[in-house]
Amino acid sequence: MTSSETGMPESARGIGERLRQTRIRAGLTPSEVGSQLKMPTYAIEALEREDWARIGAPVFIRGQLRSYARLLGLPADAIVESLSMPTDVQVELVPQTYTPRMQRVAEQTKMRLVYVVLTAAIAVPVWLATRSHLDSAIDTVSLDADAPLALPQPGASSAAKTSDINAASAAQPTTLVASITPPMPQRAVSSADLSVTFSGESWVRVSAPDGTVIEQALVQPGQQRVFKPGQVGKAVLGNAQVVSMQYRGQAIDLTPYIRANVLRFTVSSDGSLQPVDR
Questions:
Q1: Hey, how many other C-beta atoms are within 10 angstroms of the C-beta on 114?
Q2: pLDDT tens digits for range 202-221
Q3: Is residue 233 helix, strand or coil?
Q4: Are 176 and 100 in a shared domain?
């Protein structure tokens, strides 16, 4: 097999043969190595043949080479660093749930207008009805009233003065003042069903429950993916040590789903994660 057939430069040749010879001297078969590393046998054979296209993205190749070299007692870091791979070209995929930005803005504006109209339709009649009730309950005393306020006459006794003042106070109507403020609309806060955060480079392949590929790309550090309920059926993520996940705001322990630094899981109908071997 030539370097043009494998897609690898000549500088990276010889790694697979070194692994194969070391395995043979250790008395191991490809299937035995695959069983110990939790990797399929075809992946072990592809590493020894340097058939990188059979394995997948460079991040997968580096992770599996490192695991294989460590099992055989070889300098894993030196072997991985000796690889010289062409950079993957990230394929821009459009998720099935993609909506143009202008359409999203129009829909959000429409929802706000509907909410304002509904709020006004409820609050205005209540405010008008309450205001008319308050207007009928508020009475005022005119300064030109025919019955002037009776004041105690000079020379009257102290008890008479107090009686006159109390009677005058009781004769004055009580003024009521009310303030009506329409209730402020409350915005519903929704949480993402499944969120994935990447602190390093990782190759991802996410499929819908019907098997349709939602995304297959090389994700860069600092990026995040959010999936709605029922959107994901199966997911494979490389370089699992840089991946963190949350389900409905709760962190998920990814240990049961990692094999050879690759994260594999399926999502059931109730949203729970299940590990898969391949």
A1: 10
A2: 989 999 999 899 999 999 99
A3: coil
A4: yes
Q: Is residue 36 part of a domain?
A: yes
> Per this entry, what is the length of the chain?
278
Q: What share of the chain is helix, strand, coil (3-state, %, to 5)?
A: 40, 15, 40
Tell me the CA distances in angstroms from 18 to 24, 49, 51, 64, 147, one per residue in order.
10, 10, 14, 15, 117
- Listed residue (261, 201, 260, 264) closest to 233, CA to CA: 264
Angle between helices 58-72 and 15-25 (to 10 degrees): 30
- Same structural domain for residues 199 and 183? no
| Closest by CA position to 277, among listed 37, 32, 11 | 37
Look at strands 258-259 and 262-267 and give their pairing: antiparallel
Structure token digits, residue 14 = 């010889």
Q: What is the pLDDT of residue 12?
A: 45
